[in-house]
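Structure ticket #2291
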Amino acid sequence: RFRDLQFKPDMHDIEWYTYTLMGPNYQAAESNQPMDSFIYVSMPQDAGLRQLTENEWANYVSNETRKVTSAGEMHTSLSRVIQFAPSVGKEAKTRALIAVVLSLSAMIAYLWLRFGNLRYGLGAVLALTHDVCIALGLIAVSAYLSDTKIGQMLLIGDFKIDLSIVAALLTLVGYSVNDTIVVFDRIRENRGRLSTVTPELVNNSINQTLSRTILTSFTTLLAVLVMYIWGGSGFRGFNFIMSAGIIIGTYSSIAIAAPVLLVGWKKKITAAK
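Resolution: structure written out below.
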């Protein structure tokens, strides 16, 4: 408790001197052991070198009294505080942005090579951006709904972006990309050797994969909802994002990624006519 005092915001003006904690029998106190009483021994650093004034002694006694009282009133130990230097945090942020840009670029390049057109990669990345932005928006909205009756009825808490939320976002990205590629594959199969993609072709491809998409999303959503309701509060943030993300990823693959393929083709069709 004495060590944790230095992390309390209202104790930053406390002076720290060499001190020893003893039990009632003047024996060294053991760490993390309950105590009904203790002996606190401290001394100013220069007390043996010069004569302290009455004002200095009064300030010293007040400082140590406040320290002992605050430590005795602390019910539990404070959580560990880990601080990073601003330069370290800035470097981590820069590396994270570089990793995101490289991963998106690699995804665009892969889909470009696989489907033979840049629109496929751009459509998939656009759908992913949409899904992640909506998921982050839901996290922000959860802070306002957590204290309402509707939020409590829906088990919505004040979710924060932690490791479980990051894992949910990454899982959502993978789920959305997989669903998008299924639709793209059917479009490529129906296109065959045609040089253009028409709205009728995209519409027919979506209809052909719609039953598969709905069945897959529905069965996955059932499993996630079970975990959301009965899985406990520790995993509720992850399951909250996944429950909404399955719905978001499903319609973004159909209503966003696939129509992007039509951008630019209309002009070519008109010119050909």
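Closing remark: Confidence is low (pLDDT under 50) at residues 269-273.
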